[in-house]
Amino acid sequence: MADEQIGATIESGPSDWQVLQQDQDGYACITVSGRWVSPESGKVEVRLVYEATGMPVGRGLDWQAAATTPDGGWAATLVRAPAGGLYRLETRYNPRANLAGEWSARGDMRHFLGVGDLWVIAGQSNSAGYGKGPAYDPPELGVHLLRNSGSWALAAHPLNDSTATQHPANREAANPVHSPYLHYARTLKRCLNHPIGLVQAALGGSPLSAWNPTEPGGAVLFHNMVRCVECAGGRVKGVLWYQGESDADAVNGPTYAARFIRAVGAWRAALHAPELPVITVQLNRYYTPSTESLDLGWSLVREAQRQAPRMLPGVCVVPALDLPLGDLIHTSATGNMLLAERMANVALGAVYHRPVDYLAPEPASSRRSGDGRTVEIAFQPVASRMDNPDLTTSCFRVEDDLGEVPVEKVVYPGQTTVQLVLGRELSGVALVHGAPGLNPPPAPMDMERLMPMLGFYGFPVQ
What is the CB neighbour count within 10 angstroms for residue 90? Predict the structure, then answer.
């Protein structure tokens, strides 16, 4: 046909803007195939060049012959493409009469490819991106997104845009806005010096059961996440998880930890990654009238999120209690920017093994004084000292065999401890709670890092 494309065409392989997951040695293989059309016999050749200069990425990635078939098919694999980019994949059809290849027939290309790390975005609305307000968070080359349309693109908000979606399971009912993960990816890319790809699978309002195939209900978002990863190439570096609001009640809260552990196990099995890192965010606040059931549910889910790293290697938790909200329940855009940096710091320390302080303070021990009227809580890790920007309130609650014990004063003596001066002597078994409920007062923090403590519930007083 007169309008049929000549030379080499690509029918399968990477897409423009795609980020390929590097292996543990820092390389990726790029497999590509297609058809060739030419009146002359010859060979299809492929190579990988830098997008910015057109120079080959390496000697082993310059022009090399693909395997061809008599019916016009061809296939090739470029091995050991190094972490980095952006790259351009080029093809051409080289007739046998043209041994030098200088005037070969044209071939298809793929632009703006990267080799780096892929992170899955999972969870509910704070992951899907409902942060309101202004924040300077622009796109950046080397931070790319597998959009819901099934196409790779330069990452830009809203990340969970449902235009032409191929994944209706996580289509939002309203337009999302801002999430932490563009800035998260940008921070990693600048620190690690390789591209970061994002795979968006979150859905606002989704319960843990939708992500957990071990629970009744079909786990539609679990299966959707697995399909999204398959579309991205089948391998990812880790999962970014911000969820729990829909399970924060007196019924689901007590079982959240066990169900989350089973969910992570299912993700790791389905993605063939037994040590898949999962970075979680502890619940922020909820500006709504409190009830006993809601307060208990939010406290129990926060405690489950705090305990998860102890129960499951490869899981990390990030505090969010100090971040501003843009409405009743969603972290604002400015809050998302700070959360992104905390999550990136966790990834750098726990996943990429960089020498950074990424763990949030939490109680290491709690003991009563000799007269039983003071409780001293020791926090770890603390880089400077535990203190509170608001000394007029207390986010702590103490209970014993007689019920709630009034906390009359909170003392911050410096270093790693916080002292609770009580209104009466403790009786029997005592427990202390830190930042419980829907909307607790400001929590103390490691002041030099401005890192708030993780909320905790039911910590025993020795």
Answer: 20
From CA 57, how far away is CA 201, in angstroms rounded? 33
**Residue type for position 59:** R
Residue 188 CA to residue 200 CA, distance in Å, equals 17
pLDDT digits (tens, 9 = 90+) for 308-321: 999 999 999 999 99
Q: What CATH number does residue 56 fall under?
A: 2.60.40
Taking the mean position of all CA atoms in its chain, how far away is CA 391? Answer: 34
In this structure, the dihedral spanned by the alpha carbons of residues 162, 167, 171 and 175, taken in order and rounded to 10 degrees, is -10
| Torsion on CA atoms 49, 51, 52, 55, rounded to nearest 10 | 10
Q: Which of 351, 380, 411 is the last residue of a domain?
A: 351
Of 305, 324, 351, the last residue of a domain is 351
How much is the pTM?
0.95
Q: Which domain holds residue 70?
A: 7-107
> pLDDT over 70 for what percent of the chain?
98
Q: How far apart are alpha carbons 226 and 228 in whole angstroms?
A: 5
Do residue 346 and residue 401 come from a single domain?
A: no
